[in-house]
Amino acid sequence: LQVNRDGKLLFCPCGAKLNIIDVETGALRSLQQEEEEDITSFALSPDDEVLVTGSRALLLRQWDWREGRCTRTWRAIHVAPVASMAFDSTSTLLATGGCDSTIKIWDMIKQYCTHNLKGSSGVVHLVEFHPDVSQPRLFSSSMDYKIRIWDLGCSRCLATLDGHFSAVTSLAFADGNTLLSSGRDKICLVWDLKTRESKRTVPVYESVEAAVLLPRKGDFSQLGVKKEGLHFVTAGSKGILKVWEVATAACVYSQTVPFELQEEPSEHSLTQCLLLPARNQLLTVTAEHNILLYDAHTLQLRKQLAGYNDEVLDVKFLGPGDSHIVVATNSPQLKVFELATSHCQILYGHTETILALDVFRKGLMFVSCAKDKSLRVWRMQKDGRVSCVARGLGHAHGVGAVSCSRMKETFVVTSSQDCTIKIWNIPESLTSKAKAALLSSPETLHAKVTERAHNKDINSVAVSPNDKLLATGSQDRLAKLWSSADCSLLGVFMGHKRGIWCVQFSPVDQILATSSADGTLKLWGLRDFSCLKTFEGHDASVLKIIFVSRGTQLLSSGSDGLLKLWTIKTNECVKTLDGHEDKIWGLHSNKQDDMVVSASSDSCITLWKDVTEIEEKEAQAKEEEQILKEQELSNLLHEKRYLKALGLAISLDRPHTVLMVIKAILKETDGRKHLEENIVRLRKDQKEAVLAFLVTWNTNSRNCHEAQAVMETLLKHEAPDSLLQYVGIKPAVESLLPYTERHFQRLGRLLQASMFIEFMWQHMRLND
After folding, report:
1. Which domains does the chain have, with CATH numbers?
2. How many Cα atoms are found within 13 Å in the side-chain-facing hemisphere of 255?
3. What is the pLDDT of residues 489-522, one digit of tens each?
4. Sheet holding 281-286, edge to edge
């Protein structure tokens, strides 16, 4: 990963693409190679003007990354892929380290290879130019764990710095004569480049992926920097940032993190660390591809961009204005995204995979449940930070579904693989903002009611809009209705042929909607428990359903990655949305009912906006414009302004109206002459449209005269080469020829009949 000069854009490779991420908004765009060859390395010049990528196809590409186009491609000369590359401080020289143990130096202005440095052992995974232009030297490291210093003046290795016992991961220059190196051997070394000897060995007790020198200027007292001298930050396998003092080889600051530290590499391990001087920030990348931005002076988290989501199991809108979404991925952590900036908070608490989410009506509190048999209640503060305020234990197996009370934040219902449902009361201390702010640790919740509800796993649970009823759906193919007061059974809905995946109450009617693995949706009456409607159309299991459009429509998601919109009144599917490639587990609409978020096993989260009103307004505006144009056309015909009438009729795509205009012209005195004058003055695209129309007119003997008149005009005034440039000229000619021949044959027969009649008439007169 690299950052541009002002620290606003991040460049990171992903397969055959190079992604460019805006740090402020989280917006992403990509540079796509023509062939599907993975990018193995890339480098951005210090002046931000030149971007070069290397691929497995052994090609180097130079990009105009602002325009998103490749400006130059050349062979890398390496016989194996390029593993590393770096620019010098002048942005004129590029060094490429290959898997073939060689290093090439390229002159980016004159566009040729200037050096071929041999002598490394194995893959050259690290290359860096000396920052001082007056010292033309290159530093490299390969699989023999040594740092080589190359003199570019004579193309030979000046010295080898031998001190690491594992791969060297980063090089940083303190000044022209001091070098800091880090390695996976759990040490950092400070080198004197004059004597080419190690001045200090700093044991850091973890595998280090990057070491960054702190600037000599600036207040870093909050990071334990009390004295002048060299200090550096390490990022490695433990997943935390540490500040070290070179003079004493001591750790002066260790970052506090919300997760438990592990000695071995884990998903929290840090793989990269960069200093962004323009923003006074420090950037790190985790093994899960999360990008974190910290204040360089305090190491306080400023922003986090989430990387790979894995399988997304649930998603809900969050915040008073639905400004955030909370996402449950295939992990024990929750992710809360701010939609405007893509900033992500990662919430720790659960110890196993989180399975389901639900949000209270106000949008500030939400509940999660997981395979660790627990549920947790979370609250969002005014500043957007989220913290856990309560935790409940009691189920014998993983908790697979959860639903919150709808009117007030009074209770939560959970269901589990243990076939039971539990109702948990929410204490006042959690709903009151003042009291919730005083909580130092999560409160413990206790189940008010427990009821064995089904004979198989319960997949879904829902609370009615008035908080008086509960509904459950199970793998036993049954949905059941319960009283929320005492969990007493009120009725059973039977009719699905396979397990039920989701149940939802209508927000406006006494109706329950269910979806099943049998590919159907059903609507049930709450009074007599009868099936009112069945919606068929999915070819796979229907995993989630929600009511949209103020309860008049249903939106369903299937295991085939399709969303379907159903109109309840007509029982028809009015729209199928194809936005995912795998099972859609999460589906939720915002409070304004104009946006939907979906989440799938394909790791994608998609926001859908309701554009019905916009489309209706556009259609209405178009219809009004059509009416005005038709009125204008009528006026033009009345005023005999035929040229404008022709142009308007063609723009409206009205072949019949164009034909009527041509007939009106031909009825005038010297009609043929006027028709020629009007046809000649049309634009080329208008003539092409008329040509397409007259093909249809020519098929009818009633209109063939007008078609032949227009055709005669085009052939008379357009050169053959010009006619051949017309769009659709070939099929038009192929269609015109047979009908034109037929019309001439008919005229020939009519002429013969006319001559016979005239002969008979003359003969009769002679006899008289």
Report:
1. 168-308 (2.130.10.10), 312-433+440-610 (2.130.10.10), 615-758 (no CATH)
2. 26
3. 999 999 999 999 999 999 999 999 999 999 999 9
4. 270-276, 281-286, 291-295, 301-305
